[in-house]
Amino acid sequence: MYEYLKKNNLIFFALLFLIAGCAANESASEKFILVNQIGYRPEYNKKAFTNIDADTFEIVNTETGEQIYTGQLKLHHKDDPSTGETLLIGDFSDLKDAGNYTIRIGHNQSVQFEISEQPYDDAYASALKSFYFQRCGTELETRYAGEFSHPICHAQDATYHVSTHMDGVRDMTGGWHDAGDYGKYIVNAGITVGTMLMAYEHYPTWFGGDDIMIPESDNSIPDILDECRYELEWFLKMQHENGGVHHKVTRENFAPFIMPEDDDATRFIFEISSTATADYCAVMALASRIYTSFDRAFSKTCLDAALKAWRFLEQNPEIIPVGGFRNPDGVNTGGYGDATDRDERLWAAVELYITTGAQGYHEYYRKNYQENDIISRQMSWPQVECLAHLSYLHTDRQSTDPKIRAEIVNSLVSYCDKLVEMHAESGLHVLLQANDYEWGSNSTVMNRAILLIAAYEETADTNYLHVAYDQLHYILGVNIHGMTFITGVGDRYPQNIHQRQAGADNITEPISGFLAGGANAKLQDAALRRAFTRETPPARSYLDVLESYASNEVAINWNAPLLYVMGYLNAVR
User: Catalytic: 498?
Assistant: First the structure.
């Protein structure tokens, strides 16, 4: 979210900038050994990166103090443009014994890490439970939220904004707070819930846990589905009688850093948009077929809502509002504007086809998918065509078109081959080039990993799988900041995320499980512009300070692909 500080916060943040700027400037001269701070699975790639000029590295068992491994360091990248470092690499993939270890180079030592069959269990559970802490319109009880509990918030949602040409109030309570702010947005929630439901649909056993300590745990329904349902119940409230779906519910301006229960400003319902309606349609169709095994009545409600949304889209074949949603004058909350709704409609059509089997939806997909470069970029909230294609590949409906399936696979493999090349050229094996270090760069990494996973599933080529693993390694410590980007996870992690409650609760530790946005070389907030310049190596453009919304905000659509990747890589063999 684009946000601005209240004047009375400037002195506090100026001190943070001074500290962070010094740390950023000094980091280039520090010696480091970068490893995945959580750990590695025995059979997969394990690499450490360092800027220490040495020939060998040692691995020590931290429980016994015994040196159990010696390996060679090789020059990997001289003057890496992303980090500004000359990087050496130490490969210890053939170390497979379970245990706790640290890497030693001369007098320098890495943080401790683990080798085990499922090292990411706790990190995954924290990332999933982060959605519980974003719940709106409910009390977060101490027995589930601990010290982060708070009374019910936003119990009066919401009033129609004048731009809707509607009057009165309507119950829009529930759902998740979107990101660092307390707004609720269908478009961003659409890709979020869609990604989470796909994770479960694709790999139900691996995402079937029911024990992360949310109110619905131990109810014989996977917690990932319980959490999604909390959001889906809010989705249902956002649909107008005509089938269209309102774009968002927010204040006119972002709230200051206050607790959610103290945010009592009027919250408005904004216009219907076709992007929101199509995203809603896709998610509801997807939800209908997943929840049918758990709650047939809810499944039918979801399908009825999806069909109603599709009828609205059929009656309004052009984007609504004209040119896409824009904030009305005087409104400065998230816009999630998009100039085209073709990809959202494509996703809606394919999910309705898979759920109902009706050929009309299939024909829409067949007529509107792109034959050239079907997959040419990762998914993101304004670009959801990849979700349509992945669903088409995963369905077992016999009426799918084998020619189209083959074209999707060929396009997927071609795109992922480019990612493999990017991986080889990258100093830290991360799938980010200079222009990719932008707002939410960490979610770009995770969404590209999802596509690599899909390519592996289609081809059984383990090279795709290992490159996907390296993306998780980046998030969990193999980055120039030597930190995990997930709060509460690892030896060093973000302490000052840009999130309203985090800035107001007077608790030193952050809520665990949130993925920070990551390095942003476009310097899209004042904190980044004070600490860095356009000449700064792009991977360094990250600050762990509250004001840096462009690098240190959290968001539901960033945590969703993290869940998909971490849950899959924690289980796949």
Answer: yes
Q: What is the distance, to the nearest Å, from the Cα of residue 140 to the centroid of all Cα atoms in its chain?
A: 23
Integer Cα distance of 14 and 130 in angstroms: 29
**Catalytic residue selected from 3, 279, 544, 547:** 544
Listed in sequence order, the residues at least 6 apart from 399 whose beta carbon sits closer than 8 Å to its beta carbon are 357, 359, 362
Start-to-end CA span in the chain (Å): 38
Check whether residue 46 and residue 164 sit in a common domain.
no
Burial class from Cβ neighbours inside 10 Å (0-12, 13-18, 19+) for residue 435 reads: exposed
Q: Is 290 helix (H, G, I), strand (E, B) or coil?
A: helix
Q: Give the chain's mean pLDDT.
A: 94
* Amino acid occupying residue 546: L
Closest CA to 277 of 230, 249, 319, 232: 319
Count: domains in the chain: 2
Query: Are residue 96 and residue 137 in the same domain, yes or no?
Result: no
The DSSP letter of residue 100 is E
- The answer to whether residue 407 is catalytic is no
- Helix ranges restricted to H, 138-273: 142-145, 186-202, 223-237
When pLDDT is cut at 50, 70 and 90, the band that residue 370 belongs to is: confident
For the segment 542-559, the average pLDDT, to the nearest whole number, is 98
Cα(524)–Cα(542) distance, integer angstroms: 11
Q: Taking every pair of C-alpha atoms in the chain, what is the biggest distance, in angstroms?
A: 73
Q: Which of 118, 143, 161 is the last residue of a domain?
A: 118
pLDDT for 389-441, tens place per residue?
Answer: 999 999 999 999 999 999 999 999 999 999 999 999 999 999 999 999 999 99
154 counts as catalytic: no
Q: Which of 91, 118, 145 is the last residue of a domain?
A: 118
Is this model's pTM higher than 0.90 or not? Answer: yes
181 among known catalytic residues: yes
What pLDDT, in 10s, does the model give residues 98-110? 999 999 999 999 9
Catalytic annotation, pick one of 3, 80, 85, 181:
181
Residue 496 is assigned to a structural domain of this protein: no
DSSP label of 261: G
State the residue range of the domain holding 257. 121-476+555-569
**Separation CA 375–CA 386 (nearest Å):** 6
The single residue of 429, 498, 505, 547 carrying the catalytic annotation is 498
